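Here is one chain, start to finish.
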Amino acid sequence: MKRSAVALAALVMVIVFLPFQVKGQTPPLKIGYVDLRRVMDESEKGKEAKKNLGDEFEKKKKEITQKQDELQKMKDALEKQTATITPEARAEKEKQYQVKLKDYQRIADDYSAELRQKDQELTQRIVKELEDIVKGMGESEKYTLIFEKNHAGLLYATPAADVTEKVIILYNQSAKRKPATGAPPAKKP
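Its structure:
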């Protein structure tokens, strides 16, 4: 629904402005598009965010694997002791195992939700920064419209209209001018 509305709005803009492209009446229509997914994959900040998230994932994965190993050892011990312990003791050990299993599942779900949330937060922060860069580039280079390639209902565009490389360059330059997010401010002598 949203894609259709954006595509319809773009089509209306083209239809409205196209007839007025007679000598000197209006500036020429200049349209471009940006592949934000590619910017996220290829820009320095995007790569850094992906690396940090990957490191966080590996850390959580190790913790989950450790809990999994503990559960497996507990289950193996329970199976070995089945013939030698009383039914009451077996029931108690099974209950302990079930409690640990539920705890493991809860922790795994919490880690997964936490990583998804961090990914969303990083993505939203980068997209906000990119919006400012695209807006500035659009104004300075006199673009009429700049679309996002993957979510704007863009079914075809000539590669000449792709401004993604320019956005990556501008984004990397802006990252060098600003201190890294979350970094402490530089101390003054």
